[in-house]
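> Could you send the Receptor ligand binding region domain-containing protein prediction when you get a chance?

Sure thing. Input:
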Amino acid sequence: MLLCSVCRCMPVFILETFLIQHTIASWPLFTNSSVQLLGLFPDAENTTEPTDFSVHPRAMFMAAIVLAQRYGMTVDRESIGWDIAQTGGNAIGAVRSTCQKVASSDVIGIVGPAYSRETAVIAPFAESLNIPIISHAATNPSLSDRNAYPTFYRTVPSDASVTLPIVELFLRYSWKSCVIVYQNDEFGAGAVEAISDAFSDNNLVVAQLIVFDIATKKIRGDLKDLLSVTSTRIVILWTDEYHTSLVLQFALQADVLGPRFTWIMSMTISLSPFNETLRPKLIGMLTVEPVIGSVISSPYNTTLLDAAYQIWQQYEPETFPGAANVNYYALFA
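Output:
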């Protein structure tokens, strides 16, 4: 499910690393469990302080295992335990963490990792061990190829689903073309392919592709010059949360945001890092992002969800932000 809405500020909950390590240790360890689900969650990039994208899914994953224990759920009559690894947000870190955990315990399944660039490597590795892998945040459409990734599943919509509301938005306002700014990894490249195919099917045009290099943390070329040579004033930004903030900082410096350009982003971010005097230029941005069922009044199991929240508050109250502020990707986890 996807929601297109005016960009809004969502709070980010940051905790010191020692606090995260301490609260993980306070959860029940289930050392008597002979079968384990491995949860792979990213650290925030370029910082030792995790964000809600890392902390919230990890907490909900552990709350789900506690619920499974309380309900007596078993695999081959064995109770289910967990193991946790943090990947650093990159493929090599994900492989290293997964190999270490699989070698030391009986892992029967993997939840995560969060990023498509990690999942593209971990999914084939899991297949070689005949272990199912279910990601809560990896959205690259190519991961849906059952021949290439036969043991991969996800609880978040792929980016192929994003094309429908984007196309509808363009048709409604008679927009004919756009520029796509994307990060150069599986997440960005997969979205570019899906959007380009959908545009071609609907007589719309991708006028230009602009690359944000996640290695150098810079846009390839001068953003102002690149946008000035096109007639379109619609920019689709396909970057993850961390890189979205960086791109928007470049856009503010180049003065290519509102009202001159309309930007459509792939996720909502916090506006707090931006200079307060420059924030008016961020007004009018749109987001197209996955949302939970309750946002569109779809039915869901309130009993289990409330129980999971209570468990989170019991074992890790320092990180629980209140039910209304839980990151959507935590609920997908």
